[in-house]
Design a protein that fits this description.
62 residues
């Protein structure tokens, strides 16, 4: 992976969250808002899982 590719991935990561948050704000009914909030929670869980995996990998290396 190049630094440019790493930059793009980090940038895309933040844009994905921003897009999900826009869905929350744009939801006009409770059902749409609930679904958008589920997306935010799923995104958050994915980020936490990835972080935990990286921490375990780092602990194994050291």
């Amino acid at each position: 992976m190049t630094p440019k590719q790493a930059y793009r991935r980090g940038f895309r990561h933040v844009l994905d969250l921003a897009e999900i948050r826009q869905l929350v704000e744009a939801s006009e009914d409770d059902e749409g808002r609930e679904y958008a909030l589920q997306l935010v929670e799923a995104w958050r869980q994915g980020a936490l899982t990835a972080t935990a995996m990286l921490e375990r990998e780092d602990a194994t290396v050291h």
